[in-house]
């Protein structure tokens, strides 16, 4: 049984989808399991948009439906929407797109006020999944780190936090990149530079990174060499 909390739990898109679901059942009662196609739209037209009209028209034309095209289907969807305080206005544009403008008063008095009083958790969306895997960062450990690695790390961590906020169990995975080729070239370099294995053991790893054996020119030179002999 739905509760008052359930009514406001989840995203605005989900709440609008419930309203359009009711409208679609009235508009095309013979079409079962029509999923509302609700998405954010261009701010010039509204806040959200229902895009079912064109798809429905392709299914119902020629079956005696009382419509003459997608725009008429869109008008019917708009007219059959249940009354809701969250909707300020609706309009139909183009081939039946139903544009919705949300009520600012509803947003302020109901949604934001509820979040302030009961906590932001009351507004967390409820994804249909319980567990998610986020594979991010994943640098190649045989190459230098650069600012590009931060992009994946930041985006991945943000997605993981958003999912966790929505009560989804998140498994963070950092897949170490394909480092075999680089280390193979490094081993070849050591064989050439230090034919005597014992001499190589006296060279610190740091020397391969900051001295005459710097990995940047080393990597470029060896890459050119190995490419040439392929």
UniProtKB/TrEMBL annotation:
Enzyme class: ligase
Biological processes annotated in GO: arginyl-tRNA aminoacylation; post-embryonic development; reproductive structure development
Gene Ontology cellular component annotations, sorted alphabetically: cytoplasm
MF terms in GO: arginine-tRNA ligase activity; ATP binding
Keyword annotations from UniProtKB, A to Z: Aminoacyl-tRNA synthetase, ATP-binding, Ligase, Nucleotide-binding, Protein biosynthesis
Domain Arginyl tRNA synthetase N-terminal span(s) in chain numbering: 14-102
SMART domains for the chain: Arg_tRNA_synt_N
Catalytic activity line of the entry: tRNA(Arg) + L-arginine + ATP = L-arginyl-tRNA(Arg) + AMP + diphosphate
EC number: 6.1.1.19
Similarity section: Belongs to the class-I aminoacyl-tRNA synthetase family.
Protein name: arginine--tRNA ligase
């Amino acid at each position: 049984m739905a509760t008052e909390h359930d009514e406001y739990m989840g995203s605005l898109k989900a709440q609008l989808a419930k309203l359009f679901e009711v409208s679609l059942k009235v508009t095309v009662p013979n079409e079962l399991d029509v999923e509302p196609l609700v998405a954010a739209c261009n701010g010039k037209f509204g806040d959200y948009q229902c895009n079912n009209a064109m798809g429905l028209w392709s299914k119902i034309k020629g079956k005696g439906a009382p419509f003459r095209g997608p725009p008429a289907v869109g008008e019917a969807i708009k007219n059959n929407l249940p009354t809701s305080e969250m909707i300020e206005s609706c309009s139909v544009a183009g081939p039946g797109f139903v544009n919705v403008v949300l009520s600012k008063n509803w947003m302020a008095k109901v949604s934001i006020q509820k979040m302030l009083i009961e906590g932001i958790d009351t507004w967390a969306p409820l994804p249909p999944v319980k567990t998610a895997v986020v594979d991010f960062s994943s640098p190649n450990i045989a190459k230098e780190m650069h600012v590009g690695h931060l992009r994946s790390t930041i985006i991945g961590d943000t997605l993981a936090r958003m999912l966790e906020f929505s009560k989804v169990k998140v498994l963070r995975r950092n897949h170490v990149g394909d480092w075999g080729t680089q280390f193979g070239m490094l081993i070849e370099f050591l064989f050439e530079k230090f034919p005597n294995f014992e001499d190589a053991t006296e060279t610190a790893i740091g020397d391969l990174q900051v001295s005459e054996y710097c990995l940047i020119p080393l990597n470029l030179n060896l890459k050119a060499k190995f490419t040439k002999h392929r």
